[in-house]
Specification:
Elements (H helix, E strand, L loop, with lengths): L33 H6 L30 H24 L58 E4 L15 E6 L2 E3 L9 E3 L5 E9 L5 E12 L3 H18 L10 H39 L13 E10 L2 E7 L3 E8 L2 E7 L8 H9 L2 E4 L25 E4 L26 E2 L17 E6 L10 E6 L1 H4 L7 H17 L4 H9 L14 E2 L2 E7 L1
Antiparallel strand pairs: 1-2, 2-17, 3-4, 3-16, 5-6, 6-7, 7-8, 7-13, 8-14, 9-10, 9-15, 11-12, 15-17
Helix pairs in contact: 3-4
Length: 533
Amino acid sequence: MDMNPPPDNVNQNPPVRKPRPKARKLTYTKKRTQTQVKNKKPPPKRPAIRKITQTKRTKSRQQLYEYTSESDSEESDSVDSESDDSATDESDTDSSDEQPSRKRIAKYHSTSEFTSESESDSSESDISMDTSQQVTNEPIPNDVEGFNSSLCTTSEPSNFDINLFIGPTSFAVAQEVGYSYARFRHQGNMRCPKSNCEDSFSIKDLKNSDGSFLCRLFCLADGHGGSGCSAFLTNKIPSRLENMLCQYDYSQLDDQKVQEKFKQDITLLIKRLDDEYLDAKREEYRKWQNDVIHNRGRSNQVEPVDDGATLVINLFFGEWFINVNVGDSRTLVGCKTDNKWMVEFSSEDHKPYLERLALQIYSNGGVFVDNQDKPIKFDPFPQERNVRANLKNARIRLQAADNDLGVPYKNNNGIHFSLNVAATCGDLLFKLNPSKPVISCKPDIFFEKLGPFTEYNGNRFMLMSSDGLFDHLYSNKAELQNQTIATCIGQQLDARCQLKKIVAHLCNREGDRVLFENTLQEYDDCTCILVLM
């Protein structure tokens, strides 16, 4: 055994070799080197696009706004400013203290000046047709501050040629042009407004033959397919109604026979106006078709537009309120009882699911289809219920639409033209056979005796609006829609908000997420007329 010590140059503690670290794993779909990954540039940022998906609602939405008067809003502003100062001081000393939750309040401040365009009246002799379908991006001035809408205009009684000392003198009108959002990512959230508004309204004083005041007229027509029919109705109705009402005395309307005679006369008046417009359309299509044949398939004229319109007429005739309704535009009367705003009257929308209209549509050659143009089964036997549940979202088209006039009945994709309303004026395609029209223009007429206007102190109002207001609400039931709108208007009236701001608030459907849907791609024209009674 060797007992000699080891030499001095020998290391008694040899170094321990450390394990080599594991290589980093690359999780890519394709095999790439690390240098390629390092040199890769990040993708460019794309502009944010508008989401179209709709969130599911499980609970009923509650009112998130409180409408306060202008004086109350000034006091709340001062209180908020003081609370903000105190909150900042406390945050400097002790940042861990919890701040109290604040209640969200929508405040409306009065504007110092107000300017609006006067009501545009086209000539009564010509029937204007909407032939331009171009989209313009030019901004339209907004008359109301505090609302995020550049397409809304408002009007007050001073903008109309009426007697401000007779009848309902407190009213306001707001109208917003329909628009849609861009469908391409590079365009972002740009609004694309329609070339023109298809809604038309008229507010006039009808007079006797001696020039004295007869009644006040509020007329609204919601056009579809063009603005020709709506403009035609609002131009012709005032003079025709004036000639008819001169034969009546409002003190005799208590008699049921007089009311029945009134209903017959105004129904005949609307039918004659409808026939007059349809005859003009037939003549336009005949001239256009002859020009196409003469030029061997080409025409130098612009192809006619087959359009139509719904109609709402509200008359304040002495002590009487008279409502005339054709289509799905709506009139709502709200009143305050026991410190609650309730719905006193509302017109009924003429929809395909109504039993009294569905039978007539089917017997005259109409077919009920869904949004995909697929037929819906229909039982031709009368039902006991007033509403057919399977036709809740139905549309109307024709069984056989070939015609000698050349009125188009299909679009470029081969889908039939259809309507979701069961009563209109115009719409030649659905009235090619005058003796059996698929869709009629017969109105619903309602009478209510109000008494002298001096008896009411702002506890009742009348709202008339196109379907652009009600179709964008969260609820799709007419009763809930009416009560929601009545409560919203009543709260703002209690807070003494200006009428023009109330109607502008209703028309600006993207300004109130409590009432309206917020994930829509397109917004229809919207017109609201609010009258204090």
